[in-house]
Amino acid sequence: METMNTNGTTRQYGAAIALVSGVYSLLSATGGTGMMGSNSGLLMALLGVVVVVHGVVLLTPYADRLGNASGPLMIGYSLVMLLNQALVGVTGSVNWGMGMGSGMEGGMTGGMESTMTAGMGWDLGMVALAVLMLISGVIMTNRRGSESGM
To answer: Rounded distance, CA 36 to CA 45, Å?
Structure first.
């Protein structure tokens, strides 16, 4: 019985991380960071929706249908988020040369609408959430593997 409680707790933590990461991704892509018109923003909006749905499913009886795939899915989502942030960091622009500009051109005219760190193209909040999601996915994957051996 303790295994089921541990599994349920792990699933709840995974769901919480997925929901927060997915909502943050959606808000970053659509909420004033200037990302929506870019490849990066579209990717993060789509990924945000997928991650939120996964988080909701983890809180329902349908989570059992995911079986052992939930941990690897979380790892995959986190790697896509980290890769996207690395590409944004390397290019120095959220828009990858598309849209109306990088959001950094307007000096102070953009106000607080951007979550970007000054002088960097990436969103450190997104990086932190992606790392948490990666750790959660690894824990979920390892937990499933150790339970099957019992």
So the answer is: 8
Coil, helix or strand for 128?
Answer: helix
Distance CA(55)–CA(70), nearest Å, equals 10
What does each C-alpha distance from 43 to 6, 22, 83, 127 come to in angstroms?
A: 33, 12, 11, 15
Query: pLDDT tens digits, residue range 23-57?
Result: 999 998 887 555 555 788 888 999 999 999 999 99
**Tokens 């939120």 found at:** 52
CA distance 85 to 24: 14
Better-predicted residue by pLDDT, 7 or 4? 7
Q: Which of 12-16, 49-53, 75-79, 102-106 has the lowest mean pLDDT?
A: 102-106
- Give the integer Cα–Cα distance in Å for 84 and 91: 11
